[in-house]
Write a structure and sequence with these properties.
It is globular, with a radius of gyration of 14 Å. The protein has a single domain, classed as RbsD-like domain (RbsD-like fold). Helix content is 29%, strand content 18%. By secondary structure, it is of the alpha/beta class. The protein has a 6-stranded mixed sheet with strand order 2-5-1-6-3-4.
Length: 140
């Protein structure tokens, strides 16, 4: 155990966050995301939802200030009428750490970007379209 580190940040996740460099990306996914078939490094955080993990990570993780830094998976045409309430939570959490709005990526564009991510963290989040990609910045 360490002081000042949220207990939902596992030792493996802490190691990955520390090893990532400027411009590297990490995916925080819902429980339905195909993390094992997409990710090069995959961690499980089944007892955690994405909002809690997002908040804990952003306390430690600098977001890129030179480019878009938060990406969300957009709804498919079939789901256009769905209200995705978790996105409002994400906006509130992210607003405390950057002045940029999240960028929405079409589902398969999101998957392609996720394949290039440094790591994927699959959570127990049950909300749909709850996937987030974070781009790491620099510590100043």
């Amino acid at each position: 155990m360490l002081k000042g580190i949220n207990k939902i940040i596992s030792p493996d996740l802490l190691r990955i966050l520390a090893k990532m460099g400027h411009g590297d990306e990490i995916v925080l996914s819902d429980g339905n995301f195909p993390g094992e078939s997409i990710g090069r490094i995959v961690l499980r955080s089944d007892g955690t939802g994405v909002p809690e993990l997002l908040s804990a990570i952003l306390e430690l993780f600098p977001l890129d200030e030179y480019d878009n830094n938060v990406y969300l998976m957009d709804k498919t045409e079939k789901d256009r009428d769905l209200k995705i309430e978790i996105w409002d939570e994400y906006r509130k959490i992210v607003a405390d750490h950057t002045d940029r709005e999240p960028v929405f990526l079409e589902r398969f564009e999101f998957y392609e970007r996720a394949k290039k991510a440094y790591a994927v963290v699959v959570t127990g989040e049950s909300a749909i379209y709850a996937n987030v990609i974070l781009k790491k910045g620099v510590v100043k």
